[in-house]
Give the backbone structure.
Amino acid sequence: MENLLLIFAALVGAVVGSFLNVVILRLPKEDSSIVFPTSHCPQCGYMLRWYDNVPLISFLTLAGKCRRCRKPISLQYPLVELAMALLSALLLHHFGLSFEFVFYFIFMAALLVIIFIDIHHQIIPDAISLPSIGLGFAGSFFNTLISWQQSALGILCGGGLLFAIASGYYFFTKREGMGGGDIKLLAMIGAFLGVQSLLFVLFFSSFTGSIVGIAAMVHQKKGGQTRIPFGPFLALAAGVFLFFQEAIFRLWHVYLGISSLQ
């Protein structure tokens, strides 16, 4: 029975992932609806039939090409569908059929949209982050993992920490190193995961972002002018904390115990 539920969760996740692809493509565009027109090939405008729009399966049966013009279909489409399918199954395995499963399903879906939009456009839409802050706080009254006080502090401290870092960076360098979207994203993460998540999220995102940033500097040969979006690293860190927070806190307590002996 559990395996059937996991499979069903993955199927639901894949379907939602298909819709997320539409959001990723259309939300950054002004005067563009995520509902109309229906799904179509961005190259030739061919309106997809239902059998061309089955998550993952249609991409494989079409060999990654449009049925009409045979232009390549972006790998992003099956990647987002697969990622949401796996996340849905992981969430069900982690939380079971519960409020937390639905709550964090919405959270992970929002993070997935943010990751790809930030990669493509270097923006984090307020239409995603701001409502999610309110949703995260409202949900904390029903969430057994965090209290509303932890959520409220997460919003205040999350937004405040990055705002202070961004302001300090601009003061010393006279360059913007972090956008307002990142600040709102960390406030959103604090709303869903609580204030206790923020130190890890900042450390992990800074660490992974630094590694990728150094690699990008070497590859692009632009030195300090190299720019990479920070939102995907914040989102990745939030996902890691959500699934592994117990192990993270255990390691932290071990570290504190070793430090106290020195």
About this structure: Residues 231-261 form the longest helix (31 residues). The chain has a mean pLDDT of 88. Residues 1-97 form one domain. The two ends are 51 Å apart (CA to CA).
